[in-house]
Amino acid sequence: MAALPIAAPLPRASPSAVAVKGRRAAARVRTVPAALGDGCGGGGMEQQHGDAPRHPVEVKPVMSNVGNSTNILWHNCPIGQPDRQNLLGQKGCVIWITGLSGSGKSTLACALSRELHYRGHLTYVLDGDNLRHGLNRDLSFKAEDRAENIRRVGEVAKLFADAGIICIASLISPYRRDRDACRALLPDSRFVEVFMDLPLEVCEARDPKGLYKLARTGKIKGFTGIDDPYEPPVNGEIVIKMKDGECPSPKAMAKQVLCYLEENGYLQA
């Protein structure tokens, strides 16, 4: 019986080559946690042997008491207003349209929102009547409730401006101190007050909701311009007036506000 051939032995790797391969494999393994650290959970760094354990310095949070809210903490996020404004290509601000009922506040707000939308700008309209359907439905038209109504709208408008949105608030807002309080919420000239300076007789002749008629007959009490005062702005940024006895068109009013926004850099980040 013929003897089977014996296979030649495989060549053995040198100890130095094995060490190099081992180091390469270990390097590949060590890169995995670093990659995972860019996602959720992982820190992206591993502790080397012999390193002393790292203990983060604990910073005690500063708690606040605001109004009736106690022990609350403001949380800052890494994405701020400048980042959102750069994304939208505009500056967040509040355009506050004030005036008597029937002066054209809502008409201007919608016309301005439409013009800005066509130009590629993000807006949102806060209409006084609309807000009383939800957010402010628990408020009456008494002086103290009117003040709270404006305070709430001012805080909401501030959030829209912080989001980089051009917020258009349309409310009678008859009291100067309440409007000034809203202005104080927005630093760096982010509050643009637009006064619809139309005579009472013009607004009453329009009477789109029939409210002046009800107020004149005593069926509505505390109606602005009839038995409750309206305090016009002292230093408002924009004033809309009649020209040659004619009320400006919605497009003309919107153009007046647009020119102000363009000239003051609100339509760019």
**Unreliable spans:** 15-47
Shape: globular
The portion of residues forming beta strands comes to: 5-15%
Distance between the first and last residues' Cα: 94 Å
Largest sheet properties? 5 strands, parallel
What oligomeric state is this? Answer: single chain
Order of helices and strands: HEEHEHEHHEHEHHEH
Sheet with the most strands: spatial strand order: 4-5-3-6-7
Helix share, percent: 25-40%
Instruction: Give the mean pLDDT.
Output: 86
Instruction: Please provide the count of β strands.
Output: 7
Describe the structure concisely:
The protein is an alpha/beta fold and 269 residues long. The protein contains nine helices and seven strands. The strands form two sheets. Strands 4-5-3-6-7 form a five-stranded parallel beta sheet, with helices on both faces.
